[in-house]
UniProtKB/TrEMBL annotation:
Cofactor(s) needed for function: pyridoxal 5'-phosphate
One function term, GO molecular function aspect: pyridoxal phosphate binding
Reaction equations catalysed: L-alanine + 2-oxoglutarate = pyruvate + L-glutamate
Superkingdom in the source lineage: Bacteria
Protein name stated in the entry: Glutamate-pyruvate aminotransferase AlaA
Keyword Transferase: yes
Function in brief: Involved in the biosynthesis of alanine. Catalyzes the transamination of pyruvate by glutamate, leading to the formation of L-alanine and 2-oxoglutarate. Is also able to catalyze the reverse reaction.
Assembly behavior: Homodimer.
Domain Aminotransferase class I/classII large: 35-394
Keywords of this entry: Aminotransferase, Pyridoxal phosphate, Transferase
Gene3D superfamilies assigned: Aspartate Aminotransferase, domain 1, Type I PLP-dependent aspartate aminotransferase-like (Major domain)
């Protein structure tokens, strides 16, 4: 039999959050090992559940959810999203500018498929949520990574962005609040990015899935609110703010100047129609979620569970010799740095695999987020305090042994 090979389109596609180290963890679980998983931002397994009123609305509307919806989504759900866009001060948004997807992830792939031809480039942050890089590659484009500066609180380096724009650049991706760093960008910085997009006629893709997961009274600004004359595509959903990852209910909003993008929008409409519609039961959760009590505020407030766990994880990690970490202002992650003089790592995936094998803790290496050096990893702080203490204690023990093996203790 001739071997069946995967498509060449997948040659440069990588998604290490669910990559080979996770496969090894699954084998270990099959053998009876208990793995502490700090690798994925999935709130439900850690006791963060969708609000009851959202669940009740989905259940109540199940009899009406058997058929297809409009390819862009249910009217009531899109109307609620439009009102939310207005609250966030997104300019020039009408009902036809709103698309509901099976999570924001489906829409990320869709917007790139509709835009890119071979050789087109998209500016993507480093580190990034790796689906952006993967979606650009899958669509035939090239992801060009601009640096977010750890010394500047993980804010994007504007001069690095400017230097990487060329005739092939079509768009820039802004992840705010950022995954994996937890940085939340101030309006002044966002305005500088808008100005670059304006000068070079770039589309702005704004990933704002964590826009309510904010700490220390930090305020979130939607970049599209600063760009009335630039085409912006803002993505959001129920997964994180409402702890409803499994519902797969996300959306995107087109705002700003759209007249010059009619052909692109026609492509988006075509792709939305080809998948018929997003899952209908979850769409019934959107209006209630956006209009109801925002319980996420209790979780991120001082003393709230997420805020407590962020503080605890940050304190424990930075107490380890040679480990530093910018304290996140948003999202669900820390992205600590390992001092290369103390931890001379050449292959960070192998490093994370060894941690898994020795201590049964599952993390994701920094290169999985397209970071430029093998000196970072991402920690999810969703587990309760006792489990975080146990997990980070195991990480500390592994790092102590690593220092002893390499004579850097």
């Amino acid at each position: 039999m001739q071997p069946v090979h995967k498509s060449q389109k997948l040659a440069n596609v990588c998604y290490d959050i669910r990559g080979p180290v996770l496969e090894h963890a699954k084998k270990m679980e099959d053998e009876g090992h208990r793995i502490i998983k700090l690798n994925i931002g999935n709130p439900a397994p850690f006791g963060f559940f969708a609000p009851d009123e959202i669940i009740e609305d989905v259940i109540a509307n199940l009899p009406d959810a058997s058929g297809y919806s409009d390819s862009k989504g249910l009217f009531a759900a899109r109307k609620a999203i439009m009102h939310y866009a207005q609250q966030k001060q997104l300019p020039n948004v009408a009902m036809e500018d709103i698309y509901i997807g099976n999570g924001a992830s489906e829409l990320i792939v869709m917007v790139m498929q509709a835009l890119l031809d071979t050789g087109d480039e998209v500016l993507v942050p480093a580190p990034d949520y790796p689906l952006w890089t993967a979606a650009v590659s899958l669509a035939g484009g090239k992801a060009v990574h601009y640096v977010c500066d750890e010394q500047a609180g993980w804010f994007p380096d504007i001069e690095d962005i400017r230097a990487k724009i060329n005739a092939n650049t079509r768009a820039i991706v802004v992840i705010n609040p950022n995954n994996p760093t937890g940085a939340v960008y101030p309006p002044e910085l966002l305005a500088e990015i808008v100005e670059l997009a304006r000068q070079h006629q770039l589309i702005i893709y704004a990933d704002e899935i964590y826009d309510k997961v904010l700490y220390d009274e930090v305020q979130h600004t939607s970049i599209a609110s600063l760009a009335p004359d630039v085409l912006c595509v803002t993505l959001n959903g129920l997964s994180k703010n409402y702890r409803a990852c499994g519902y797969r209910a996300g959306w995107m909003v087109l705002s700003g100047e759209k007249k010059h993008a009619r052909d692109y929008i026609e492509g988006l409409n075509m792709l939305a129609s080809m998948r018929l519609c997003a899952n209908v039961p979850a769409q019934f959760a959107i209006q209630t979620a956006l209009g109801g009590y925002q319980s996420i505020n209790d979780l991120v407030a001082p003393g709230g569970r997420l805020a407590r766990q962020r503080d605890l994880a940050h304190e424990l990690l930075t107490a380890i010799p040679g480990v530093s970490c910018v304290k996140p202002q948003g999202a669900l992650y820390l992205f600590p740095r390992l001092d290369p003089k103390i931890y001379p790592i050449s292959d960070d995936q192998q490093f994370i695999l060894e941690l898994l094998q020795e201590e049964k803790v599952l993390l994701v290496q920094g290169s999985g987020f397209n970071w430029i050096a093998p000196d970072h990893f991402r920690v999810v702080f969703l587990p309760n305090s006792d489990d975080l203490i146990e997990a980070i204690g195991r990480i500390a023990r592994f790092l102590e042994n690593y220092r002893k093996r390499h004579g850097t203790d």
